[in-house]
Protein: Flp pilus assembly protein CpaB
Amino acid sequence: MNSRISMALAGLLLIGALIAGYWGLVLSRTPEPVAAPVVSVESTAAAVEDQTRRPVVVLVHDVPAFVPLTAADLALENLRTVPAGSLTELDQAIGRRPLRALGAGTWLNDQSFSEGGPLARMIRPDERALAVAVDEVIGAAGQLSPGDYVDVLLFLARDTDNAQQSAQIIIPALRLLSVGDQLGLANDGQPAVPPPVTVEERAQAAQRRAGARTVVLAVPEPLLSRLMLAAQAGTLRLAVRSADEQLLGRYWAGESDPTSTLAEANRDLYQFTQLALIGPPKSPAQSDTAPAVRRGIEVIRGAQAAQQTP
Structure:
């Protein structure tokens, strides 16, 4: 009996020794290093850049006016610089009707669904947008920018209808709405059209502005005919006013009285005939083309003198 117990205990001890040896062998092995995930610099930069971008609703193709937008017309584009006032969710545009035709790639905002084009949103109710032809001299050597304020000057050369050459300010302090195809700010202070984003687009816009041949002025309605007459009567010049002038942006409206401002402009107007560079206009009798008046011959006979006309 004792021998059997001894053999059983010996077997158990042998099994325990084998298990302990195997376990010790497993623990003594050096674990294989786990390969860490490879993170490239490009992927890290892309992840950081994605966090700085924000979605903007854009049109994927041209859409006509007065047609409700559908999800197929729209897409979300992630931009680093989000245009002010732009829509950021598709639900904000789906079902809305643009009041004018919009092109593919247009960033949508609330102005996309309001009446009037960019120029109509840049002028006040008592103003009109009027285009004026310019060249390098008239347009201040191509340095005009939307938002500048200019005085419109008129030069009249001497001709048969104008006895003396003259120069005068026709309308002071008009706001430039656009130079070529470059537009300024709307009445709400936001860009009338999305500004160029890339460096290449900004360079192309500056080049087009320098070569612009038309500018659009915000003209008070009572002065429209005056500017039209001046443009046909002689040569116009645009003189840029200082940006440091106080209340210049409200010259014709708001803080200043438009009635008194208009009356002052009328008083300063020389009716396209005065401010001559060589003196006052000549009367018809004094003009160079007037016929000379014949003078008689004085005949003296003794103490008597008489005028005789040959």
